[in-house]
């Protein structure tokens, strides 16, 4: 009996005698013959042929596998890897994929895959169709005499967010025995990609499989953030951006095309923008991806802090990053030639914001003697003599104290000096919330070595002489011996004198920094603070003398036909009616008369400037009106003095009241202590009863008097 089955029968009376041809389970499908019976010829023939065919097929397969491993080089490329981008770009450019007969068609923005599409989208704004070969249909092409097959073995899919292809695999087979052909092909594709300047895909650093990227983060608190911002703004690096934030804020002026733009298009926050960085230093071009992350808005100070600029380089070469930072710094300095950068703090005690102010020429300052020249020469000499300081073992720092009446030009001098010396100003107000000894030390250690540290109104760290005097006049103490008056005055600054002295003396403040402090009340400053070594140069600013008054006057009125440049001030061309109608001699006369009318050393230049602003282009009117103005100033002064006296009297009255209350309380305490224990208990019980009934009665009246 003949039978075939998939597995050998359990009985030993069967024997195996050949395969069943073309069986899908040819390893297991055999003919099994009863040992006792003879094999019929037709079965013998079929089983022998089957064995021959199967053996031949297996040999052929093995030979093919050996052959393909010897004669074909295979390589797999996955999406989201740079090598995939190189090869795909190369294939698209050489229209290899267009030879295919089966496509996947997608519509994307023309800029995302320029080679794969017609340029329609660039003109009509509608997205372009992109033809991609369908998976599992290989495309063949010849490259340097070798046949190469391209197979999208695994189809990618469009990312729901970005529309970019993810998850796909590209299989390249090169019909050659030489392995290095693959290297050469990939190298050529890579070079082609670099040269063609195809917009690279957006990258997410942490998800990159290749990891061949460099990322640099520029935090807002660091000045390098400003460099980068200046670079991005000035080079129009992001002009091809597709995501925008629209702003009409004055602070975003830099993103506009012109200073008078009312609407500015800024690159959208937290989106990945790409631009080609062409280095003027090396001539190399590298793709960069930039993400601008805004900081958190602080409602108190109206400043945003904690913002970041993240730059990802499509390169692993650190010199490109160094080059970029260098270019950004240069651009920043270039932009700042006519500007002075002022760094401000937030109310958490960190450098938070930089504003730029137009540079002010020292010559526009009206100061007596050669004060301007003296400060400038002193500061220059200091900056140039770092080696000398080091050799002499003296800390390389210099402190300037500008003190005197308000509105006399102290701050203006420092700003003009910063412009002249090309230094940035780091501005600290000791009265700002969030500034205490700790944050002050941190702020100062976070400043660069060559800069101007400006501490305005340094006296706020200490009680004013007025406060002290009042307390000395009437030293009213509470029952614990604490002064009543002082506890009611809020602290003027959280910075202590010792904290301030420590900071000024700290090692970190020895690096060529110019410290400027201003005050209207030098008499309130501790002598330790203003001693040489901390404040090396002290300059007093007084109210304007006669010479200064006449100089301010002349600065306000241009001479006929003189270099009064209206265009520079953005005022347009001058109409004939606005031309000055006075001569130089007349102007001198007006100025002298004006200076005679104003009492010397009584008014600040800021005050005089305020008056002259009302009379611009009318010198004779300014002279005529000055007496009226002086009268109004006198009245204002008198009213102010009266108000001050009233306030002082009110404070004195309150202090007196507080003292009387305290005395009365002390008298009650004394009586209580003198009375016996029972009396004391009685008093307490009475007080308790009153304490409970009082509010209850009150509530009843408030809620309606029925219960009364
Ligand atoms: N000496 C001066 N020369 C030219 N302009 C001056 C001078 N003094 C004051 N001004 C003008 O007055 C205004 C106020 O000046 P500034 O802020 O420099 O005074 P300040 O002494 O720092 O005042 P404060 O002590 O109140 O801070 C500015 O617009 C400035 O142009």
Descriptive account of the structure:
The protein has 708 residues and is α+β, with helices and mostly antiparallel strands. The chain folds into 5 domains: 2-69, no CATH class; 79-201, no CATH class; 214-338, no CATH class; 359-541, 3-Layer(aba) Sandwich (Rossmann fold), CATH 3.40.50; 677-707. The chain is built from 18 helices and 26 strands. The strands form 8 sheets. Strands 21-20-23-24-25-22-26 form a 7-stranded mixed beta sheet, sandwiched between helices. A 4-stranded antiparallel beta sheet has the order 4-11-8-7. Strands 12-19-16-15 form a 4-stranded antiparallel beta sheet, with helices on one face. It binds adenosine-5'-triphosphate. Residues 365-367, 406-412, 518, 520, 541, 605-606, 609 line the site of adenosine-5'-triphosphate.
Question: What is the count of DSSP helices, taking H or I runs of 4+ residues?
Answer: 18
Q: What fold name stands as the CATH topology of the largest domain?
A: Rossmann fold
* Radius of gyration, CA atoms, in whole angstroms: 44 Å
**CATH homologous superfamily heading of the largest domain:** P-loop containing nucleotide triphosphate hydrolases
Provide the low-confidence segments as ranges: 110-121, 468-476, 484-490, 563-576, 678-708
Number of strands: 26
Query: How many domain regions?
Result: 5
Name the helicity range: 25-40%
Which ligands accompany this protein?
adenosine-5'-triphosphate
Q: Main sheet, how many strands, which sense, barrel?
A: 7 strands, mixed
* CATH architecture grouping of the largest domain: 3-Layer(aba) Sandwich
The span between the termini is 123 Å
Determine the structural class based on helices, strands and strand pairing.
alpha+beta
By CATH reckoning, the class of the largest domain would read Alpha Beta
Strand order of the largest sheet: 21-20-23-24-25-22-26
Roughly what is the average pLDDT, rounded to an integer?
Answer: 76
> β content, as a range?
15-25%
Q: Estimate the global geometry from the Cα principal axes.
A: elongated
């Amino acid at each position: 009996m003949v039978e075939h089955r998939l597995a050998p029968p359990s009985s030993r009376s069967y024997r195996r005698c050949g395969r069943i041809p073309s069986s899908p389970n040819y390893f297991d499908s055999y003919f099994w013959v009863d040992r006792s019976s003879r094999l019929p010829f037709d079965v013998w023939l079929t089983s022998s042929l089957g064995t021959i065919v199967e053996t031949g097929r297996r040999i052929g397969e093995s030979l093919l596998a050996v052959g393909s491993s010897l004669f074909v080089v295979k390589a797999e490329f996955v999406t989201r890897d740079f090598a995939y981008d190189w090869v795909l770009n190369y294939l698209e450019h050489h229209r290899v994929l267009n030879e295919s007969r089966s496509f996947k068609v997608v519509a994307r923005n023309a800029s995302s895959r320029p080679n794969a599409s017609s340029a329609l989208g660039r003109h009509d704004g509608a997205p372009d169709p992109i033809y991609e070969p369908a998976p599992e249909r290989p495309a063949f092409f010849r490259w340097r005499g070798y046949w190469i097959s391209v197979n999208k073995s695994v189809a990618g899919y469009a990312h729901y967010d970005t529309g970019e292809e993810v998850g796909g695999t590209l299989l390249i087979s090169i019909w050659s025995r030489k392995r290095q052909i693959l290297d050469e092909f990939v190298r050529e594709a890579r070079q082609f990609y670099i040269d063609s300047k195809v917009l690279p895909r957006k990258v997410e650093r942490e998800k990159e499989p290749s990891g061949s990227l460099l990322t640099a983060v520029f935090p807002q608190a660091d000045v390098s953030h400003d460099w980068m911002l200046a670079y991005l703004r000035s080079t129009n690096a992001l002009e091809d951006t597709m995501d925008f934030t629209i702003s009409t804020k004055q602070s975003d002026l830099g993103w506009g095309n012109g200073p008078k733009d009312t609407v500015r298009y800024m690159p959208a926050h937290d989106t990945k923008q790409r631009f080609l960085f062409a280095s003027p230093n090396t001539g190399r071009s590298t793709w960069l991806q930039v993400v601008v992350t805004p900081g958190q808005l602080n409602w108190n100070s109206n400043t945003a802090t904690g913002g970041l600029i993240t730059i990802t380089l499509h390169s692993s070469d650190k010199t490109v990053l160094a080059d970029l930072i260098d270019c950004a710094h240069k651009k920043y300095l270039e932009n700042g030639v006519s500007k002075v950068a002022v760094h401000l703090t937030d109310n958490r005690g960190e450098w938070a914001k930089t504003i730029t102010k137009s540079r002010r020429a020292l010559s526009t300052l009206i100061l007596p003697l050669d004060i301007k020249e003296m400060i400038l020469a002193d500061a220059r000499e200091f900056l140039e003599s770092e080696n000398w300081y080091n050799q002499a073992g003296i800390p390389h720092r210099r402190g300037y104290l500008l003190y005197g009446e308000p509105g006399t030009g102290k701050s203006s001098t420092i700003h003009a000096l910063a412009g002249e010396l090309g230094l940035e100003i780091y501005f600290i107000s000791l009265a700002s919330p969030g500034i205490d000894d700790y944050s002050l030390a941190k702020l100062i250690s976070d400043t660069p070595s060559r800069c101007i540290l400006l501490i305005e109104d340094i006296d706020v760290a200490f009680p004013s002489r007025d406060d002290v005097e009042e307390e000395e006049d009437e030293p009213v103490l509470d029952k614990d011996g604490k002064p009543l008056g002082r506890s009611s005055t809020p602290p003027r600054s959280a910075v202590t004198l010792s904290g301030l002295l420590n900071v000024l003396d700290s090692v970190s403040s020895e690096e060529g920094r110019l410290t400027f402090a201003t005050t209207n009340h030098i008499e309130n400053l501790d002598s330790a603070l203003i001693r040489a070594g901390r404040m090396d140069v002290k300059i007093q600013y007084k109210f304007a003398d006669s010479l200064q008054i006449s100089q301010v006057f002349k600065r306000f009125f241009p001479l006929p036909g003189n270099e009064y440049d209206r265009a520079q001030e953005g005022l347009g061309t001058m109409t004939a009616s606005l031309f000055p109608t006075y001569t130089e001699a007349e102007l001198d006369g007006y100025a002298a008369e004006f200076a005679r009318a104003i009492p010397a050393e009584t008014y600040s230049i800021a005050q005089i400037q305020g008056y002259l602003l009302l009379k611009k282009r009318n010198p004779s009117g300014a002279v005529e009106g000055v007496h009226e103005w002086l009268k109004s100033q006198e009245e204002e002064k008198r009213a102010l003095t009266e108000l001050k006296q009233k306030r002082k009297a009110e404070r004195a009255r309150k202090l007196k009241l507080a003292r009387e209350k305290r005395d009365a309380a002390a008298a009650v305490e004394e009586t209580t202590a003198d009375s016996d224990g029972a009396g004391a208990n009685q008093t307490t019980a009475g007080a308790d009863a009153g304490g409970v009934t009082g509010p209850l009665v009150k509530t009843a009246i408030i809620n309606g008097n029925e219960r009364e």
